[in-house]
Structure formats: C-alpha cells, structure tokens
Amino acid sequence: MNTEKLIRLGQELQAKLGFHPEVGLTQELYEEVLKLVHILADDDVSHDKNWALLDVLVPAIVCYDNKQN
What we know:
By secondary structure, the chain is mainly alpha-helical. Helices cover 77% and strands 0% of the residues. Helix 2 runs antiparallel to helix 4. The protein is globular, with a radius of gyration of 12 Å. The mean pLDDT is 82.
C-alpha cells in the first residue's frame, strides 16, 4: 500500500467535497454526506470496501452533530 498516495488522494477528495471534517459542513452538505455514508456503510461488505472514504466523511458528520448539540 502506498501511504503517500493515499494521503494525497484523501486531501484531493476533501478538496473536491468542499469541506474539511474539522471545519464542518453546511446543512445542505450535511444531508448529502449523511445519505452517502448510509449508502457506503449499508452492510459489512460495503463498509469494508469503503472504509477509507468513511474515515473522511464520518468525522465531518460527528463534528456537525456536536456543533448542533
């Protein structure tokens, strides 16, 4: 596994998604990301295939939820 490539791709993905997990989401992005997470984590097989993307998306949702509460 090429760790440098994974890190670079993760950064590119965050730039394309238009948010950083620690900064947070808008309400509209939150709803889109939440739908996407449900699709990516639908079952064990999906989750296992999509864990890297979920590692980017889930912290953004948690951050948003924490700010709302």
